[in-house]
Amino acid sequence: MGVSTLKLRIDTPTGKVYPGRGFYQRDEGALYVQVGEVSDQRHCFSYLEAESVRFDLDQHAQLMGIEVTEPR
Prior knowledge:
Helix content is 0%, strand content 35%. The chain contains no helices and 5 strands. It has a 5-stranded antiparallel β-sheet, with no helix packed on it.
């Protein structure tokens, strides 16, 4: 059974960005999605990057964030 429709709520972030939430930075033409929680013990350590996508990884190579720089 598949999902018939996808619902998005798009608004300006005003506080902490929680895992699973993202935002579109209009002036940069980029979508940012935080996948893992950032803390003193867990932070971005490295990344994998292609022409329009970047994956941020923590020190254990677990995904923390996704950045898509393909303008709408």
